[in-house]
């Protein structure tokens, strides 16, 4: 296998267990297996890859993939998806809210991501911004408002560092750059999607408030977030992609 196309066409099924002809043209990315199970149950759809690195499930023209956690995995799935050249790719992720006004369960619709991940440096020079596809973010915004809900917008800082909540110097840096949230994948997905000509977007769910000790995520608090907010998070993602599908709207406006 000498070319990228040859590699990804072999590796996407190898990582997910799903044959290429079973993938939809619209992708939802998650990094928690409960989303896969919810999607599968909702549509009575088969889950592929239970013994693979990533799990995937398709209903209609939408495929949902649990790619795991972190920027390296995010870059991997965005490279592998070039095997099917999806029309749109939506990341439904969790994030830490960094502002006092944030509450657990809030939605954040990022207009950009700050590239603290390191992984995206292999794709673009540091001055290239990590941006979503506007049409996809607009569809998410419309869906949220149709649900009589609201969201915050702003930038999300993506880091490759999982344990930082104890680091006061790093937290001061986050205050200085005035970012709305922090996660480990969004900037990578935006950047590698752009490099691979895949329109990408994200809707983040605030799962913790890590700037204060009592707001740091625990196993108990994370279970409460899943129970209270995961269903609506997934529902909004599905409805947003169906809005594009049903209206035959193009997502790719950026000139790659």
Account of the protein in words:
This protein is α/β, with parallel strands linked by helices and 256 residues long. The chain has one domain (4-246): Nucleoside phosphorylase domain (Rossmann fold), CATH 3.40.50.1580. It has helices spanning 4-16, 33-43, 71-80, 134-146, 168-176, 186-195, 219-246, and strands at residues 26-30, 47-48, 55-59, 62-66, 88-97, 107-116, 152-159, 181-183, 200-208. The chain has a five-stranded mixed barrel. Helix 4 links the parallel strand 6 and strand 7. Helix 2 (33-43) packs across helix 7 (219-246) and helix 4 packs across helix 7. The two termini are 26 Å apart. 46% of the residues are buried.
Annotation keywords:
256 residues; alpha/beta; Rossmann fold; five-stranded mixed β-barrel; 7 helices; 37% helix; 22% strand
Quick overview:
It is built from 7 helices and 9 strands.
Topology, please?
Elements: H1 4-16, E1 26-30, H2 33-43, E2 47-48, E3 55-59, E4 62-66, H3 71-80, E5 88-97, E6 107-116, H4 134-146, E7 152-159, H5 168-176, E8 181-183, H6 186-195, E9 200-208, H7 219-246
Parallel strand pairs: 1-4, 1-5, 5-9, 6-7, 7-8
Antiparallel strand pairs: 2-3, 3-4, 5-8, 6-9
Helix pairs in contact: 2-7, 3-6, 4-7
